[in-house]
Known about the structure:
alpha/beta; 250 residues
Amino acid sequence: MNSPHRTTRLSDLKDRHAGERCVLIANGPSLNNMDLGFLKRETCIGMNKIFLGFKRFRFYPRYYVAVNRKVIEQATAQIKALNCVKFISQAGAHGLLAENALTHLIRTHAYQIDHQGIKGPGFCRDIAAEGVHEGWTVTHAALQIAYYLGFSEVVLIGLDHRYQYSGAPNEARVLDGPDPNHFSPAYFGGGQTWDNPDLAHSEESYRLARAEYERVGRRILDATLDGACAVFEKADYRQLFRIAASGAVA
Length: 250
């Protein structure tokens, strides 16, 4: 259970961005094919190893989210160094990261169980009181955090939703060679361990997130370049952020 101190700190963030737009940056290879100069003018939420792209993409997020223990273990030093507000799984960070002025350790739940005993995704509207459902993808956790912060529109980019992998969904695997599934070949490459994606369960989580946003008149737009996820309303990022053919803002 969250401590009173932790709950109070998180409560101070509730609806901080009511009525505003944010860009939620996933980590697919499509980021390499986008003109991301517009990110400097947007409120950005980064996830996992997005720091590998800061120099190339020329942006810095205002918020950061990580819930997977393997990611936190592999990137502890880089996460500590991030100069932005961070939301980190309390269980995943145990023994690695401590709470401080920029770091919020939050409870995370792998799934919820309904009255029939069936495991499924959940969506927490109040992360201070309830924590966050992981939903088989850090993107789902970040969508709950964006909801709590009050954003009325969340624009997703880098949500390629296609992977090359062997083995079963959620199985831990060592990835030899370069990583073909993320914007950087070093993301999980070179012998690092990662958890295979679970696209079916991720889509369940996304459908729930979309329903929760639309229930209160908010929306999630998927502006990923050539993304394979069919859950969210699609948008062309160039039109959305008014980027001319030259790359300048129109």
